[in-house]
Specification:
Elements (H helix, E strand, L loop, with lengths): L1 E6 L2 H11 L6 E6 L9 E2 L5 H10 L4 E4 L2 H5 L2 H7 L4 E2 L7 H4 L1 H10 L7 E4 L2 H9 L5 E5 L8 E4 L2 H12 L11 E5 L4 E10 L3 E3 L4 E2 L2 E3 L3 E4 L4 E4 L6 H21 L5 E11 L2 E8 L6 H5 L7 H9 L14 E8 L11 E2 L1 E2 L5 H6 E5 L2 E4 L2 E4 L3 E9 L2 H12 L2 E2 L15
Parallel strand pairs: 1-2, 1-4, 2-3, 4-5
Antiparallel strand pairs: 6-9, 7-8, 7-9, 10-11, 10-16, 12-15, 13-14, 15-18, 16-17, 18-24, 19-23, 20-25, 21-24, 22-23
Bound molecules: adenosine monophosphate (AMP) and glycine (GLY).
Adenosine monophosphate (AMP) binds next to β7, β8 and β17.
Amino acid sequence: MKILILGSGGREYSIARAISKEDEKHELFFQPGNGATNNLGTNLNIKDYNELAQFAKDNEIELTIVGPEAPLVDGVVDIFKKEGLTIFGPSKEAAQLEGSKVYMKNFLAKYNIPTARYIETDSIEDAFKFTDSLTAPIVVKADGLCGGKGVIIAQNHDEAKVAISEMLSGKSFGDAGLKVIVEEFLDGYELSMFAVCDGDDYILLPAAQDHKRLLDNDEGPNTGGMGAYAPTPLVDEELYQKVKDRVIVPTLDGMKKENAPFEGVLFIGIMVVNGEPITLEFNVRFGDPECEILMPLMTSSVSDMFLKASTNRLSEIKVEFSKQFAVGVVMASGNYPYSSSTPAEIILDDVKHDEIEKYTHISFAGVSEEDGVLYADGGRVLVCVGLGDSIKEARDRAYLRCGQVHFVGKKIRTDIAYQAL
Ligand code: AMP
Ligand code: GLY
């Protein structure tokens, strides 16, 4: 197939890498891709979605896969579908599950999907009143997309009220904060679950755990994610079943009733409280770095799964996963997540050891390339992935690979997968 992938991160690289390994040969295009995806296909520079759809038609692209949320919320799927193209991802309307936290919370409430108690409002008085009814910590969220920064866990009522005031006045997040959610803090352990959906049917992938904080022991500021592993032993069959029955099935049914059938990846952020899965949030795309560890665990065709999901035929296939575990360690640049860093040359040791060669790989993200030299040129630069028969084995291998990657300022967490070890 000729396949176009939208996005530029490690997530998109890992999808492309998995597709490149299939028996069937594919031709890959990236919009815009990164300095390493050009080894897997052709990087494009077509920012306008109508022009991109025209490119897809002219070049007989058979499947487009959308990685990040922004193009989904902007309606790229609707534009491609209007042109008769096959594209994997939710419509603009369905992408509101991520694009608007107010839409998402009201949807959860309407369809009785367990979530934290909340108020959604643009009134500072109402927000303060509800805040006073909660015990600290208190969670304050901006309605719109804020690049993963729109959630404040306030340690006391005053801090919560400052966050509310700054959001509602437009000071902290502009228009994205003109409506806020204030909600109760849930104390439990967090999971990432991913269901690939075709509107009616779904395939649930192995549950993963992300590591959002920058530093070891879950300290420091929130990031896009510093590492992940899957499957996590913190989920048993009973919990998988609860997530299916209480979250995924009612969501797919509900979205049909809303006339916005959900096609694409439903990423469920879950807090498990006393054994019960409570939905923290939905995203409408794969997590990054979760995607980088889930793709190498798939033993059946990745491209076929996306194709069948885009054409309402998921029921025709069986998606299979390896019995192994995967651990991904993010290597970030020096100033991440505060500011950008000067591009630094990446030096990769020659892989000589069989074990490293066979059971590890790198998914490249914030990298650029010039004259065959790779530069660390973004916040999260790459992900070292290790596979193994146990989480420990996979973890040890991922860190072995990390030891072979060098660039000035490189930053990693040393405790990825600690919850499972
Ligand atoms: P979100 O973007 O909604 O996933 O929020 C970002 C992070 O904030 C989540 O991954 C959680 O770690 C944390 N968080 C969000 N909502 C809550 C909540 N109600 N209780 C506890 N932690 C939360
Ligand atoms: N790793 C979390 C996310 O992609 O939102």
